[in-house]
Fold each of these.
Amino acid sequence: MKKLINGVESVEEQMILGLVKSAPDKLRKLDEGNVVVRAQKKEGKVALVSGGGSGHEPAHGGFVGEGMLDAAVAGAVFTSPTPDKIFAGIQAVATDKGVLCVVKNYTGDVMNFEMAIDMAKDEDIEADYVVVNDDVAVKDSLYTTGRRGVAGTVLVHKIAGAKAEQGASLPEVKAVAEKVIANVRTMGMAISPCTVPAAGKPGFELAEDEVEIGIGIHGEPGTTREKLSTADETAKKLLDKILADIDFKGQEVVVMVNGMGATPLMELYVINNFVQDYLKEQGVKVYDTMVGNYMTSIEMAGFSLTLLRLDDEMKALYDAKADTPALKR
Amino acid sequence: MKKLINGVESVEEQMILGLVKSAPDKLRKLDEGNVVVRAQKKEGKVALVSGGGSGHEPAHGGFVGEGMLDAAVAGAVFTSPTPDKIFAGIQAVATDKGVLCVVKNYTGDVMNFEMAIDMAKDEDIEADYVVVNDDVAVKDSLYTTGRRGVAGTVLVHKIAGAKAEQGASLPEVKAVAEKVIANVRTMGMAISPCTVPAAGKPGFELAEDEVEIGIGIHGEPGTTREKLSTADETAKKLLDKILADIDFKGQEVVVMVNGMGATPLMELYVINNFVQDYLKEQGVKVYDTMVGNYMTSIEMAGFSLTLLRLDDEMKALYDAKADTPALKR
Amino acid sequence: MLDTAKAAEIIRAIAARMEAEKDFLTQLDNEIGDGDHGINLARGFKSVLEKLPELEGGDIGGLLKGTGMQLVSNVGGASGPLYGTAFMKAGNALKGKTEATAAEFAVAMEAAIGGIKMRGKSEEGEKTMLDALCPAYKALSEAIDGGDELKDALTKAIEAAAKGVEYTKTIIATKGRASYLGERSIGHQDPGATSSLYMLQEMEKCL
Amino acid sequence: MLDTAKAAEIIRAIAARMEAEKDFLTQLDNEIGDGDHGINLARGFKSVLEKLPELEGGDIGGLLKGTGMQLVSNVGGASGPLYGTAFMKAGNALKGKTEATAAEFAVAMEAAIGGIKMRGKSEEGEKTMLDALCPAYKALSEAIDGGDELKDALTKAIEAAAKGVEYTKTIIATKGRASYLGERSIGHQDPGATSSLYMLQEMEKCL
Ligand SMILES: Nc1ncnc2c1ncn2[C@@H]1O[C@H](COP(=O)(O)OP(=O)(O)O)[C@@H](O)[C@H]1O
Ligand SMILES: Nc1ncnc2c1ncn2[C@@H]1O[C@H](COP(=O)(O)OP(=O)(O)O)[C@@H](O)[C@H]1O
Ligand SMILES: [Mg+2]
Ligand SMILES: [Mg+2]
Ligand SMILES: [Mg+2]
Ligand SMILES: [Mg+2]
C-alpha cells in the first residue's frame, strides 16, 4: 500500500481537520468526532445532515456550506459512522424547523442513522430521513436490500439543500429530496481497485485488460468482470442501463460524469464527449453537466454516470446558489 | 497501459470536445485545432491566452472563462502546441487592448509561443508574454533553462485574469502577472508515475517504497529518488525548500495543495492538515487555501505545494469573481 | 455455570479472537463486501476491552449491555448495530443476574437473534450472520431441553453454526452488501456468519 | 549530386527511420525528459510525408522549407521549432536550387545549425542535438574542403556525430528538459542528439 498518510489510525481525523483548515471561516469540526458543520450555525431553516464512511471525498464534508449541507458525519473508511457521532452532528445543527438526514442505502448506514434519529427524537429534536438508492447496477427488489446509494446523492444534497436554504418546512424539504431520489439514476465501473488504509491491500485485483462493471463506491467488486473496451463503448454500456431504468426521452436532465478518485480529468472529458453525443441521439436534453470527482472510492480509477430527470422546481433549486468547498454555484 | 480512451490518436481532441460540451454556453472549440475560447468573445479587455501540452487537466482549458483566460491552446500530451495553433488562439480572442500570453518555462513552450507572437505581430496584433517559473526543485541560473513553470501558473491565470477583466492595459496586466511570478513558488513529488497515451508505458518506475521528489508536471523523474515517508515529513520537505527560496515569514499567502491527477482528495486533505499547522508555526499567515487538482500530470499520484506571497493588489484580484469550469469564485 | 467473571472472560476471549482473525475476516469481506468486517470488529472489541473493567463488577446483564453499547458506538457499518443490538438484547434478558443457567443463556441468545432480525430486517437464508446463529440457537436449545450442560450444548451449537457457515457459500445474498453481487456472491462464505461462529467457539472454550 | 528528387528520397528515408526508432527515442526521452521525442518526430515527419508530393516538384530550397514548416506546425515541444527552424534555414540557403554541390550542402547545414542555436539560445556542450550536429558539421566541412565527395564527407560526419552522442552521456544538461535533472542527467544519452545522428545516417545512405 502506497499512500500519502501518517498512519492508518489517524487518516480519517487528519483528513477532516485538513478539510476544515482549508476553509476555517466556513467550516468547523465537532470535538465529538469526525463531524464537519458550518462555522456559523444557520437558524430558521431545516438542517440537512449527511454522512457515511470516509473514502468518498469530497463527499460528504466537502458539501457542507451555504445551499447544501449543515453537517456531514464521517465514519471510518467505507464504514458507516456510529449513531452517537451522527447524533452529535444532528444535535449541533438542529433548528426548530427540524433536521433531514440524507442516507445512502446501505444496511449499515440505514441502521446507524435510524438509531441516531431515535436518539434525536428522545431529545425532542424533529428529525427525519430519506434513503438514496440511485445505483441501477443492482436490481431493486422488495425482498433484498435494494439498490445502493451512490453519486446521485450529491444531487440530493444540492437540490434539497437549496430548498432548505429557502426556509421550506421539513416535509417540503423531504418531499423534494424524495423527488430527486425518484428521478436520479447512476451506474459505475472501475479499471483499478482501491485500498482501504486499515486493510493495506486492494479490495480486488484486475488484470491489465479487465474492468469491473457495476461497482459501488466502497471498493467492492462490481456485478460483472469484463474486458477493457473503449471509453465510448464503456460509457454506452452504463448509459443504456440507466436509460432502460426510467424514461428520460424528451426530458431535461442533469448529467454527472463522476470520477472514482484516481481517474484523470482527461478521461472524464473523453467520456463526456461521448455521453453528450449519445444523449442527444437518444432524444435526451441536457440541462447542465458536472464533470469531476464528487463521490469517490479513495484512489479507485473508473467513473460513474448519473442522470437526473428535472422538473421546473428541481431546475430552479439546482441553479440556486451553493458555496461549499466542492461545489460552488 | 489501462486508460478510458478511444485511441491514442484521438484523446486530445475528444478531451477538448468533452470539456467544451460540459459548458456549451460558456466555451467553444476553434475549428483550427484544440483551442478552447470563451463562447462569447469579450471585447474591451486584454485577452489572456495560455496553453501547453495536454495532460495537465483541468489546466488549461478548464480555466477559460470570466475572470481568467480568454483562450487555452492544447498541444499533444506533454508537448507544447505548435505556433500555428497558438496563433489561431491569439487571433480568435485578440482585442484592441492586446493579448498577453502566459507561458510556462519550458524550452518548447517558450519557443512555440515566441513564434506565434511573431506571427501575431505580423498581423498587427499587439501581443506580449510572461514566463512562469515557480518550481523551486530546479536551480535558477542564467546559464541554464532555469526553473520550470508548474502549478503556480494557475494563480497567474487567476490574478492576471482578474486584472484583465477589469479593463487594465496590456502593460498593467503584464506587470501584475510578473508580480505573481516573482512571488509564487512551488515544489512537487510523485508516488507513482503517469503514462503518456502515445507512449503506452509509464515515464519511470518506482518500487513500492520509493518516491520521486522534485518532479515537474510532464511525467519526468524528479531531482531525487527517496524512500516513502509520512505525509507530514514529505510535505515538510517540500515546504522547507519553498520557504528557503524567498522570505514568507510574516507575510500573507495563498496556499495551493495540488493533486497530480490520481491523488485521492483524502490524501490532499491529510497533507493540508500538516501544511496549515506548519505554516502557522513558521509565522506565515494563510490568506486562503486551495486544495484539489489544478495542474496535473495525467494519472500521476503525488502532489505539489504552492505558496504565493500576497500584497493588497494581488489579494483583491485573487478574490475577484471567476467563473470557469475548474475555478469559481 | 456462567457468572459475570466468566462472561467477562468470554468477552476478552472474543476480543482476542477478533484481533487474531482480523485479516481473515477482512479478506472474506473483500470478496463479497467492502473489506472491513475484521477491521470493524477488531476496533469495536478493542474499545469494549477498554470499557470492561467498569463493567465486570456488576451483573451479567449490565456487562453484556455495556458491551453492546460499546460495539454500537465503535464498530459502525452493518455489523456494529447488529452485534451491538444483539449484545444489548442479551443483556436485557439477563438483567440483574450475576449467574445464569443454561436455559437462561438460551433465552438470552434467542433475544440476541431477535434483535438482529429486527434491526437488520432479515431472516435466516439471506447469507448473513443469522445463518450461523439461527441453526446454532436451534441446536443449543434442543440440547439444553434434552438435559445437556451449557458447554456440551455449545459444542453442538458450534457444529450447527459451522454447517451454517458452509451453507452461506451455496446461497445468494439478499441482505447486506453481498446482495449487490447477486449470483456472484455464490461460492463465498459470509464474513458475519464466520465471526458469529468464532464468538460461539470462544464461549465454548471458556466454559 | 543532390537534386530535389534525392532530397525528397532523403526526407522519406528520415521519416521511415523516425517511425522505426519512435519507441527507442521515446525511451531515451523517458529517462531524462518527458518521454515524447520519438512520438513527436514520428508525428511530425508523417505530416511531412503528406505534404511531400506538393513539394517535390520544385527546388530543393522549397522542399526543405516546406518540410521545416510542416515540422513547426506538427511536432510541437522543443524539437518542433528546433528541427523546423533548421530545415527552414537550410531551405533558405538552397533557395531556387534544383541541384546542390557538396559545398552548398555544407553551407545549408551551417545555416541549419545556426537556426537551432538562435531559436534554442544554446551552444555545443549543453547535452542537446547540437552535440551531434556541431561536430558532424565540423567533420563534414573539413572533409569537403579536403576534396571529399558529399557521401564520403557524410560518412565522416556520422562518425563525429556518433561520438557526440556518446559524449552527451558524460555531461550535465543545461538546456531542455533534461537540465531539470541536474547531476541525474549524467549517464543518459540525449534523445535529440540521437535523432540528429539518425537523420545524418539516412542522408548518407541515400546518396
Ligand atoms: N440485514 C442484515 N441482517 C443480518 N446480518 C447482516 C445484515 N446485513 C449485513 N449483515 C452481516 O454483516 C456482515 C458485514 O459486516 P461489516 O462488513 O462489518 O459491515 P458493512 O457491510 O457495513 O461493511 C455481513 O457479512 C453479514 O453477515
Ligand atoms: N535549447 C535547446 N537547444 C537545442 N536543442 C534542444 C534545446 N532544448 C531541447 N533540445 C533538444 O530537444 C530534445 C527534446 O525534444 P522533445 O522531446 O521532442 O521536446 P520536449 O523536450 O519539449 O518534450 C532534447 O533531447 C534536445 O536534444
Ligand atoms: Mg463497511
Ligand atoms: Mg514534450
Ligand atoms: Mg464490510
Ligand atoms: Mg520530450
Amino acid sequence: MHVEGDFHVRSARTLVWAFFRDPATLATCLEDPHEIHATDATHFEGTLTAGVAFIRGTFRLRGSYASETPPNQMQVTLQGSGMGSGVDAALTVSFAEGSEGTGVHWTGEIKMSGTIATVGERLVKGTVDKKVTALFEAARVKLEPA
Amino acid sequence: MAIDAVEVQSAMPNHRSKTIHVTVNGVPRESHVEARTLLVSYLREHLKLTGTHIGCDTGHCGACTVLVDGTPVKSCMFLAVQSDGSEVRSVEGLETGGKLHPVQEGFHKEHGLQCGYCTPGMMMTSVALLAANPNPTEDEIRRGISGNLCRCTGYVNIVKAIQSAAKEMAAAPKGGP
Amino acid sequence: MYPPNFEYYVPSTVEEAVGLLDQHQGDAKILAGGQSLIAMMKLRLAQPAILVDINRIPNLAYVREDDKFLRIGATTRTAELSRSTIVQARYPILSDAGREIADPIVRNRGTVGGNVSHGDPGNDLPACLLAMGAEFEIHGPKGIRTLPARGFYQDTFVTSVATNEMMTEIRVPRPGAGTGSAYSKMERKVGDFATVGVGARVVVDSSGKILNAGIGLTNVGPTAIYATAASDFLAGKTDSDAVLAQAAVLARDASAPSPDNRGPVDFKKDMVRIWTRRTLRKALDRAKGGK
Amino acid sequence: MATAPLGGIGVSVPRKEDARFIRGKGNYVDDVQLPGMLFLDIVRSPYAYAKILAIHKEKTLAVPGVLAVITGKDLEAAKLSWMPTLMSDTQMVLPTDTVMFQGQEVVGVVATDRYAAADGVAAMEIDYEPMTPVIDPFKALDPGAPVLRTDKPGRKDNHIWHWEVGDKDGTAQALKESDVVIKEKIYIPRIHVSSIETCGCVAQVDSMGKLTVWLTTQAPHAIRTVFALVSGLPENQIRIISPDIGGGFGGKVPVYPGYVIAVVAALTTGHPVKFIEDRTGNLTSDSFARDYHIEAEIGATKDGRLTALRVKTLADHGYTDAAANPSKFPAGMFHVITGSYPFKKAFVEVDAVYTNKPPGGIAYRCSFRVTEAVHAIERLIDILAHQLKMDPAEFRLKNFIPPEAFPFPSVLGWTYDSGNYAGALKKAMEIIDYAGLRKEQVEKRKRGELMGIGISSFTEIVGAGPSKDFDILGIKMFDSAEVRIHPTGKVLARFGTKSQGQGHETTYAQILAEELGIPVEGISVEEGDTDTAPYGLGTYASRSTPTAGAAAVIAARKIREKGAKIAAHLLEVSPDDIEWVDHKFQVKGVPGKSKTMADVAFAAYTNHPQGMEAGLEAVDYYDPPNMTYPFGSYIAVVDIDKETGQIKTRRFVAVDDCGTIINPMIVDGQIHGGLTMGFAPSMLEEIQYDADGNNKATSFLEYLLPTAVETPHWETAKTTTPSPHHPIGAKGVGESATVGAPPAFVNAVVDALEPYGVTNIDIPLSSYKIWQAIHSKDPP
C-alpha cells in the first residue's frame, strides 16, 4: 500500500534532519510500546508491540538508512516480523528548506505478507495508514518549537 | 539434530486450567483441562471420542458440530471449560440401546454420506433441526444445514436422508430418541 | 490451529466482570459467543492474556419490550433474536439480520452484544441498530452510561466501549405507527461477510408520506455506517421510485468500501445504491402493512 | 440375471462402509492415537520469495512441551532437504536458504501436544530478506525475469517444458480455409480440492527399525516406493497404511513435505509423530489444480461443420512441477480437447513455467487436464454456434461423432472406445424441455430479463492406463485385485486402489458377488495397507473401476476356472461339461445338477481333486487395453439479476453415460458430488495471489466452498453405452460431472448476456464480473 504525506514545521532543516536520522529519537514518536536501538551508523533494530484494538502482536524490527543526501533526503527501510507475518516498509523522506522552517514530505510503500496480509488485511490496512500518519504527526509536534 | 528435552510444566499458573464436570453422551465426566482446550480437543484427545472431526479450524465447515444442551455448536469454536455443567452429545451418543437414530438410518438408506468425514457433524445438526422442526421443507433443510460443509455428496442425498428421518420419526411412537 | 494460553475467569455478575476488566486493563477480553474471538485466537491474531467469560452472568440473555424500548440482553444469541415473536412482528429488520448472520450453527453461539460491540464492519447488526436509532447500555467501573448507536463506531474494532467496560443491553426504540424496517445482505455464500448489507427504517403517515427514515450500511467502510444524508433526505418526501433512487445515490456516496475478493470499490458502491433502494422499498412495503 | 439377492451389478446396495461412519467409528488418520506420540507443527513463510538469513530457535525451544526444531539445514545434513515430485522435478522438504512461495514449510516444531507445538510455531523467529516474487506466469517468461530455480545448474529461465501434439501446418492451413474462425482466451484459475479432512500422517518406527506411516494417501503403494527411494530404506521395512480418508479428489496423491518431516522426527526422537495440516497450511501449500491460460481457436464451414482446432496454453506450475501426470504426458490428457467432435485437423501446445507459488498442476477431481480441455472446447463450440447464429444444441447435434464411428480415432491420437453423444444430449433436452426454455427466453429478452441456457456435451478420458503409454515415475499404471475365498464361502478381497468416499467396499463386493455368485454381505474388501494389499497405483482420475474393478472381474474368473474343475470333481463329470449359469457351476443342460461357489470353496479346502493345489484364490494385475471414455450432456438454466450480477441456477439436468453401472445409487452420489465440484469453481472458488504473492484465500472465509443453500438441486439421468474393452463394460464416473459442468454454467451465463455482446467470462462467475460485463456496455 502506498503512503504519502507532508508537514511543515518552524524548525531548521538540519535539526529536522537530525531528528529523523536518529532512530532513538524517531522512536519516541511511536505511541505503541517499543524498544529500538541503533546497531551501527546506519542500522537499527528492536521490537514494537502494535495492532488494532485486541489484535496485537509484538514485531521484531530491523531497519536501515540509505541513499542519504543530508539534509535533503533519506530512505528509511523497515522490516518487521511477527504474528506469522512480515511488514516491510520503504519510505523516502524529503526535507525542503522554507522561509519559515522545513517542509517534510514522505512517500513510500508498505507491504504486508503472511497472516496479516491474507487474513487481517481487511482489518489492518487502515490501521497501518493511521499509524504512519500518527508517527509523522508526533514528529511534527515534537519538532515544533515551543 | 537439535533435540532439547524440556520438562512439561506440571503446575499451570492460576486460572489457566480448570476442573470441569460434563455429561458426555449420558456419562458424567470430571476432567481437568487447560482453559484454552477446545471442546473438540477435549472430546477427541481426552475422552478418545474421535467421531467428532476437525475440518477448517475457523468455524466455517461444521465438521466438529456437537450438541451442547441440545443446541448444535461448532466444538472447535468453543472451549471445553465453557461446557462445564452441560450435557454434550456427539455422534457416539446417537445410537441408543443398539438402535440407530433415525437420522443415522436415513443417512445410510439415502446414501447421505460418502467419505464420512463431515457426516457426524452433519447428523448432529440434523438431529437438532428435526427436534425444532419435525417436518421441514427442502428449503428449510438446506438452510438448516448451511453451517455444515460437505465436499462429497452435493447435499442432494443429505436432504433426502433428513426427509427420510423426519418421516420415520413422525411414524415412531413418541418418546423415541 | 490452536489458541494461546490465557487466564480464564467466569464472573457471575456484571460488576465482577467489569472489575476484572478494570483490574487487567487492556490485557483482558470479554468472551461472549466467541465465534469471532476464538477464531482470531487460533490464528494468533488475538492473544488476550485474560478471558472474562460473561456467559454465566444471569439475566443477560433476554428479548423483551416495554413501553419505550425493545431491550435485548448482551448475551442473547443471534439465533434467539430471529426466533423472537416480538422481533418478528415489530422489528423485522432484526429478524432479517438474525437470519443472515454467519450460519445457523454460529448463530447458536454468537451473541447480540458481541456482534454489536466487536466493531467489525462486517457484522450485520450494527447497521440495523444505526438505522433504528438504538442505544447501548454500558457498564463500567464508575457506573452505567448509555450511548446512542450513532457515533458509537469509531474505527475498525474501535468503539466507544473502553477496555474496562462492557455492553449489557441493546435498546431499540419502540416503533410507532407507520414504521417499517428491513435488512438485506448481499453475500457470496452463506457464512460470508456481506459484500454490502443495508438496514432501513421508515415511518410513513396515512397519506404515504415518509415522516423520517434511517439507513445503516454493513461492510462498506472501516465501520458500520449511518447514511445521514440519505436518511435525512427522505424525511418529508412522498414515496416514489425516484425518491428512493435519489436516497440510494446519497447512501452510495456515504460508503467508503475497500476492494477485496468481493469486488472493487466502484462495484461495491453501486451495490450500496441497489440494495439501499431495494431495502427501502421492502421497509416501505412493511410500513404500509405488507410483509 | 438374478442379481438382486446377491447384491450384484446394477443393484443399489446400501453401502457397507456406512456402518462405521454413521457411528463415528471411522478411522481417519487423526484418529490414530499411539502411546508416547508427539506432534509436529510447521512454521510457514510469510513471504512469496525471500532469502532466509537466520533461524532463531531459542524462543521456540524454550516453549514448554517443545522437544525439537527441524530446519532445512538439519535435513540437508541427512540429504533429505529435497525430494522428487511425481513429475521427476524436485521439491524442497524444507528450504535451506530460499523460500519459494508464501505458506511454504520452513521449520518443523515437535512437541508433546498440539497446543505446545502451535506455541512453538508462534514463538519462532526467522530473519528473511524479501525478494521480488514472480507471480504472473507470462512475466515469468520475460527475458529479464529472475530465474527462480537457481538450484538447478545451468538454468537460464523459468520455462519448464514445451509439449505439443498434432499437425501444426495442416491445422494452420485448415483454419485459413475455414469460413468462420473464432478465437478466445480462457483462463481456468487455480483452485484447491479442500477435502473436509486435511492431509496428515502418523509416523512410527518400531524397535526393529520398521517404519509404519498412517497416511492420507490415495496411492499407498506408489508412496511407499517414493519413500523408499527418498529415504534409502528397503521397501519391506516401510509400511504405508492409508486409513479412512475424508475426501481426496486428487489432493492426497502427492507426497507433501510435512510427511517427510514427520518421518524424520519419528526417526530422530524414537517416538511416533503425528502431523495434521491445519486448513491454512492445506490451502497455502498443498498442490493446486488448473491454472491454465488457454488461447484457442476453432474453425467451421459456413454451414456449420467443424474444421480445425488450435490451442496454445501457458501452464503455471508454481515453483515446481508436482503434477501427477503419466510421465509421457506432461500436460496430462489435455489433447482430448477435440472433445465430442470429429475434427480433421488439430494442434495443441502447452508451455509450463515456474512462478513463486506452491506446486500446481495436480488435481481437483480431475488430475489429467481433462477439465481444462473440456472447458475450452465446450466454450468454443458455444461461441462458434452463436457466431453462426445456430442453436448451440443443434450445432452440437450436427457435429457430434456419430455412434457408428466408434471406436473412434481422434485426430490427436486417442481411440474413443464407445459413445452415443446425440443420445445423451437429446435425453437432456427432453428432460429439461429445451424447446420450451428457448421460447421462454425469447419472451424474457423482450422484457429485458436475463435468462440463459447452457449446454456442455463432454467426453471424458479415464482409466489410466495401458502400460504401453502410461507410467508414473516409471511404474506402469496397472491396478490389482487379490481375491481369496475361505472354506465357508466368505470372501476377502484386497485391492491396490484406495477409496476416499467412492464406496469401493460396496462396489467391488458387488462386482465379485456378480462374478462369484456369493452374496455381497459375504465379501469383505480391504485396501490401503501396503503390507497386505497387492501393488497398485491407487485411486484418482476415475481409474478404480476401469482398472482394479476389471482386475476383480478377471481374478474372479480365474477362480471360476479352478472352481469349475472342483465342481466337476464334486459332480463327477468332466470339467468340460461344467458351465457357469445363474451364478452356479452347473452340468451343461442339467439345471438341477449344480454346485454353488460356497460348495466349491468348502471342497477346495476339504476335498479338492488329487493333483490340484488346495485353496481358492487368485490375483490379477490388470493392464487396460485402452482408456475408457465416459461422456454426457449437461444443461444449465440460469437467471441473472441485472442490477447485482447475481446468478441463480434455476435448473441443472445432467445426463451421464459411464457404461455399465454397478451401483446406481453410488453412481448418482458420485455425480451429485461431481456436479457440486463443477459448480464450486464455476461460481465461487478461486485461489488468487496479490502482486506480492500473498495467497488471498487462506481459510474457508475466503475459499468459498458452497453450502446446501448455494448448491443447485441436481437432476440426473443416464444413458448406457458399455465400454467394449472393459470386462463388464464399466467406464468410471467420479470425475465426469466436475469435468463436464463448468462450461454448462459459463455457456448459460454468456447466453444470458448475449444482448451485451459478451463472448466469454472466466470462472468463477462472481457477481462483480457479471455486473462488469453488463455495465461495460450499459453503465449504471
Amino acid sequence: MQRIGDEPVYEVFARRVDGEPLRHVGSVAASGDALARVYARSIYDEESWIELYVVPRRAVIPVESVRTEAVDAHA
Amino acid sequence: MSTPLLDRAAALPRETVPPLVDLVTALADNKHALGLRYGEWCSSGPTIEAGVAATAMAQDELGHARVLYGLLEELPGAPRRSEHEWAAGDARTVAFVDRPFPSWPHLIVANLLVDQALTLVLETALGSRYLPLRQRTRKLIEEEQFHAVHGQGWLLQLAAEGPRVRSVLDAIIREAWADAVCWFGPDRGGALAPLVAVGVLREAGDAVRRRFLRQIGPLLRDAGLASLLRADGDGWVPAEALPWAEWDESRRRMRRG
Amino acid sequence: MPEALRAPTREGVLAALSGVADPEWPVSIVDMGLVYEVGVAEGVVTLTLTFTATACPCMEMIQEDIRDCLLRLPGVRDVRIEVSWDPPWTKDRLTERARVALRRCGVTV
Amino acid sequence: MAMTDEQLIERIGQGHIVESPGEMTPEYRQTLIHILTVSADTELISAPSYYTAARNVPSMNNLISALAIIQDELSHAHIGYRILQDLGVDTEALIYDRDPKQFKHPYAFDVPLRSWIELIVANAFYDRAGYVLLGDVYRHCSYGPWRRGLAKVDKEENFHLRHGENGMRRLAATHREELQQAIDWMFPMTVEWFGLPDSLKTHGKQIGYRLKGSTNDQLRQTWLRTAVPLCEGLGFRVPAHHERATDAYVLDYPLPVDFDEAERRWLMDRPITWNDVLVRWKRRGPGNAMFVEMLQRGRRQMRETVERH
C-alpha cells in the first residue's frame, strides 16, 4: 500500500468489440488493485468496453523494444 | 414461489403502505444527499482520480434518488418530492449526510457505511413481491457495485497513512456508526417487519445487520479500525449496545442531531 | 380515408422511433435497444423504455423527442411513456445496425 | 544516439511519432511539457469553475449533466498530468504546491460563472475553444502517448459543446435576456482566449514539433466560424460578423479591449495593448485563488492530518 501521491501506475487495456485486439487506452495511478479498477472504469468511460483490464506497470516486462534502454534494464 | 405479485400500489395490504412509504422516502432522500455530498468533492479529492470517482458516484446516487422518487409517486400518502425541495426540513436523511463532509475521510466513511447500508437494504428487495420496487432494484444494485470497491480501497489506503489518520478515521466511524448499523431496524426489523411478512422485503433488522457486519468486519479489522465491533463465531457483532432509545423508526434516523 | 386506415400501427410507431436518436450516441433509440415494449390502442401509443444508466442526463430530452415525433403520426392523439429498469440494459441489446453505425463513426461499442 | 533539434524536427516533419522521453531533445521536451501543462491545468480548473455554477442549477437532471461534464474534464486533466509524470515532472508539486497565480489556464476560468445559464454558455463557448485547440493538437500531435489520450478528449469535448448548444436552443425563448447577458461577456472572453495575433507571435517551434498545427489567428477563426452562426441562428447579438469577400469572420471591435472585472463587462471603446492583456492574465482574475484552493484542499488536509500531533 503506497502513500497518497506515491501510488504505483497501472496500465489500462480494453476491447471494444469481439474480434478486436485488446488495446492500450491509458494509465491510472492507484494505491492498490481495487482502486485501480474503480479509477480505470470512471476515467476511461469514453466507450462501452466489452472488456477492461488494469495491469501493474511493473508487471509489463519488456522483451524487445527499439528503445533498447527499456530491455537492457531487465536483462 | 407461487405467492402472487403485488403489481401496483393498490394491491398492497393496507398496513404495509406507511412503512413502505417511510422506507422508500428515506432511501431516496439519503441517496439524494449522498449524491450532493459526493458531488461537493468533485474537484477537492486528495488525488484527481479520487475526484473523478467521487463525481461518478455522485451521478449514480442522484440517478437512484430520481428512480426512487418515481416509485414514491405511485404510493398513497407519500410526501411530495419535487427535485430540489427535499431539504426544506423534512428530509429523511441520517445526520451523517445532512451537511457537507468536512474532510475526505468523512466521504469514505459515508461511502463505506451509509452507502453500503442502503445497498444492503435494497438487496432485500431484489425478489420483492411488490413489482414496482422489484423492477427498480437490480439496476440500482448493479450500479452500486463499484461504490463498495471504492470505499474498501480507500479505507485501506487511508489506514496505511499511519496512526494519526487511523485515529481520525476511528472518530469519524464512531460518528456514523449508529446511523448505519441501526438503519436495518431493530431485531426482526421493527417497522419494516410487516414488509417482510408479506414478502415486499426478504428480511430486515438483525438478519441484514449481520450480513453488513460480516462485510465490513474483516475490512475494519485489516485496517486496524475494528474498535466498534468484535468477531463472534463466524460473524461479527457490535461491541457496544446500539442506541435504540434514540432511533426514530419512521424517519429512519437518530432523534438527536 | 376511412378512420381504420389512418390508425397507427406498432410497425409504424417503431419506424418513426427509428428517427429518434440518443443524443449521446449517433444511433436511434430503437437500435440502442432502449425500447422494451410498444402498444397501440385507439390512437394512444404506450411505450416502455429503458436507459443505459439511471443517471442518464438525456432522459427528459429523449422523452420529449419521442412525444414530438409520435404526435406527428396520423391518428396518434396521446403518447404514454413508462420507464423500466427491468431487465437492466446491457450491451447485448444493441442491434447489429447500431454496432455497425457506432463503429463507422469511431465510437464503437 | 543523441539527436539535434534540427534532426528531430526533420524526422517529425516526415511523420515520425515520438514515443518516449529518450527520443526527445531538451527543447522538444520543454515545449511538450509547457503545452501539456497548459492543457491539463485548463481541464482541471474548469472542474471547480463548473461545479461552482452547478450548485445553483434548477433541477436534479441539470446537476447530473453538469457532474457528467465535470467528470470528463477531470479525466482529461488526469490524462495530461499522468503523461507529465511519465515525462519526469513532479506532478505532486505541480498540482498541490503551486501558487494559484502560477496555474497556466486561460483567464476565462478566473472569472466565476454565476448561473446555470452561464454554465450552458461556457459549454457552448469555452468547451468549443477547448475542442478547437485540442482537436488541432490531436490531428497533428507528434507525441504518441498524448495523441492517443486525446482521442477520448476530442470526443467528449464535442459532447460538451453540443450540450451547450442544445441548452442554448432550449432556453433561447424563455431566458433570452440572461443568455444575451452571458454571451455579451463570454463571447469576447473566448475570442481573447486564443491569444496574441500571428503578427505578434510566431509558433515556429510548436508547429515544427507538430505539437500545434495552426496559428492563434487560424484557431480563433475556426472558433468564430461555428460560434457566430450558432448565436445568430438563435437571434443573439455577437460582436462579430461574416465578411463575404474574404469568407472570414471579422470582429466588430478592436482586439484587445479592456475588461471590467467587477462588472464583468468589456469596454469595447477602450482598446488596450496585448501587453496590458498579459499583465491582467498574470495578475489572474477574481476566481483564481478560490478555485485553486478547492483543487488543493483535499490533499492539503490529508497532509496536515498525517503530520499533526
